[in-house]
Automatic annotation (TrEMBL):
This is Glutamate 5-kinase. The lineage of its organism: Bacteria, Bacillati, Bacillota, Clostridia, Lachnospirales. It catalyses: L-glutamate + ATP = L-glutamyl 5-phosphate + ADP. InterPro entries: AceGlu_kinase-like_sf (IPR036393), Asp/Glu/Uridylate_kinase (IPR001048), G5K_ProB (IPR041739), Glu/AcGlu_kinase (IPR001057), Glu_5kinase (IPR011529), Glu_5kinase/COase_Synthase (IPR005715), Glutamate_5-kinase_CS (IPR019797). It is found in: Cytoplasm. One of its GO terms (cellular component) is cytosol. GO terms for biological process: L-proline biosynthetic process. ATP binds at residues 16, 176-177, 218-224. It is an enzyme of class 2 (transferase). Transmembrane segments: none annotated.
Length: 265
């Protein structure tokens, strides 16, 4: 059995969805069609006996639209404010669609410095694991009203790797608007080569990472490589894949060569 084929045996899965993958880039509105298809795939994983944790971006994008702002706020405090508004609306959407399939969800807001505080770390770990045992899908996001780093830099890429390491996940899947890691930016060089697997994150791999790519997200390839480093160092395999691909999660668990697989140490 190949490494890809063995993914079907992974039990505890963390899946991160980016802002650009759940909203329409042109309008900023929630893409309900794509969101519902994505949720169906998560529920199908659950029905296969997997434990699923969702790390979802999108609070700022949704809050910006709810407040009828013409563009994403530039001031940190304004971003935090619209994130608070958007988070409530985002969870309402998740609760409604998951509820149509009789799937219970829970909201968890954490900060990246959680790992530096043993008691808080243990509490978060216990809560997430308890929810999984109860059959609930935890939906995790950065607590944007008290933390700003992911707002500015990460679009929850690093946060999802921390969640994966926190609960000793078997696999982390980062879903965004890119097909994986390339030797160069494929939008600038059509001869750029797709990298299907990475066994070790070397200096050469780090150099392949570019800047911010999407219109509503903040996480470029550099933050995804950083997330891969955290995940693989903690024994978690990680895949970067395109959320726009039809049945992308199903194809990953069918062993198809989707995206870029970073192999855990």
């Amino acid at each position: 059995m190949t490494i890809r084929e063995n993914l079907i045996n992974k039990k505890k899965i963390v899946i991160k969805i980016g802002s650009s993958s759940i909203t329409h880039c042109e309008t900023g509105e929630i893409d309900y069609g794509r969101l519902e298809k994505f949720i169906r795939e998560l529920i199908n994983l659950k029905n296969m006996g997997k434990e699923v944790v969702l790390v979802s971006s999108g609070a700022i994008a949704v809050g910006t639209k709810v407040m009828n702002l013409t563009k994403r706020p530039s001031l940190i405090e304004e971003k935090q404010a619209v994130a608070a508004i958007g988070q409530a609306n985002l969870m309402m959407c998740y609760q409604k669609i998951f509820g149509e399939y009789n799937q219970k969800v829970a909201q968890i807001l954490i900060t990246k410095d959680l790992m530096d505080h043993p008691v808080r770390r243990q509490n978060a770990q216990n809560t997430i694991n308890a929810l999984l045992k109860m059959g609930v899908i935890p939906i995790v996001n950065e607590n944007d009203t008290v933390a700003t780093e992911e707002i500015v830099y990460g679009d929850n890429d690093t946060l999802s790797a921390i969640v994966g390491s926190l609960i000793t996940a078997d696999l982390l899947i980062l879903l965004s608007d890119i097909d994986g890691l390339y030797s160069e930016d494929p939008r600038k060089n059509n001869k750029a080569m797709h990298i299907p697997e990475v066994e070790e994150i070397t200096e050469e791999i780090e150099k392949m990472a570019g800047g911010v790519g999407s219109c509503v997200g903040t996480g470029g390839m550099a933050t995804k490589i950083c997330a891969a480093q955290i995940a693989t160092d903690h024994g978690v395999d990680m895949i970067i894949a395109n959320a726009g691909m039809h049945h992308v999660i199903g194809k990953i668990f069918e062993g198809k060569p989707i995206g870029t697989l970073f192999i855990a140490h």
